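Audit log entry. Action: structure prediction of a protein-small molecule complex. Ligand: zinc ion. The ligand was supplied as SMILES and no pocket hint was given, so placement is left entirely to the predictor. Protonation state taken as written. Sequence taken verbatim from the request; no trimming, no tag removal. Recorded inputs:
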Amino acid sequence: MDRSYLMNTLEEFSLQCPNCGEVVTIFVDCSVEQQVYVEDCTVCCRPILLTVSCDEFNGINVAARREED
Ligand SMILES: [Zn+2]
């Protein structure tokens, strides 16, 4: 298994926007193991609540929710 992503601070990750359904690309900071933050969708500009976890076994996991949920 290629774990070279752990060497990089920022990793690209594609997810589906919970607001508009478009696939958007975000950059995940893998120097932090777990984080929750809000990022605006690049397509519809509405906020997406991101729950991001990075670990060497599972790689990058991102859960995207609408901020108001
Ligand atoms: Zn959107």
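Audit: result stored. The mean pLDDT is 88. The beta strands are 10-16, 23-29, 34-40, 47-55, 59-66.
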